[in-house]
Amino acid sequence: MALPPLPWTLKLSVAVWLVVGALFLVASGSFLVSAQLQEQDRAGLVGLGVVMGVLGLLQFFLVFRLRRGKRSARELLTTTGIIVGLPVLLRGTPGLSVVAVVMLLAIVPLWLPPSSAWLQAIDAKPENKYRRLIRRTLSPFKKS
User: Fold this and answer.
1) CA atoms of 87 and 81, how far apart (whole Å)
2) Which sign, positive or negative, has the C-alpha torsion 98, 101, 107, 109?
3) How far apart are alpha carbons 98 and 24 in whole angstroms?
């Protein structure tokens, strides 16, 4: 099944998330190289490098799923952006604050109406079972 073309909002968001993922992988490599060159704080730098690498790979995976029309990818990118972006931004780490701002801004196009309409057309949200039960039993237009 061929998917309809991505709206401009999702194209923008995909591009920004790919850049953020690449920046996380670069930061990961930087932390891992720094860990090899330093004698102190080696464990902290290795841990931070591994976390950054996993975040970068996770974002690439989620962007791939987003392009295939999965609503869950949008929700996970939003969650990841907020959970990672806000603390980094509030902490004020100079290099990573820019990435955090870009990450938080990348969330906005995911939820704009063209993106939501496209995702609803591709991966429609199922009706809540309780609403379905109420609609079927209490509908004034129900034929007896």
Assistant:
1) 10
2) negative
3) 12
HEC states along the chain?
A: CCCCCCCHHHHHHHHHHHHHHHHHHHHHHHHHHHHHHCCCCHHHHHHHHHHHHHHHHHHHHHHHHHHCCCHHHHHHHHHHHHHHHHHHHHHCCHHHHHHHHHHHHHHHHHHCHHHHHHHHHHCCCCCCHHHHHHHHHHCCCCCC
Instruction: Tell me the Cα Rg of the chain.
Output: 20
**Cβ atoms of 63 and 72 closer than 8 Å:** no
Give pTM, 2 decimals.
0.81
- Cβ atoms of residues 76 and 62 within 8 Å: yes
The per-residue pLDDT for range 12-57, each reduced to its tens digit, is 999 999 999 999 999 899 989 988 888 777 888 889 899 999 999 9
CB 83 within 8 A of CB 69: no
Per the document, the length of the chain is 144
Query: Could you tell me the two tokens for 33?
Result: 């190289």
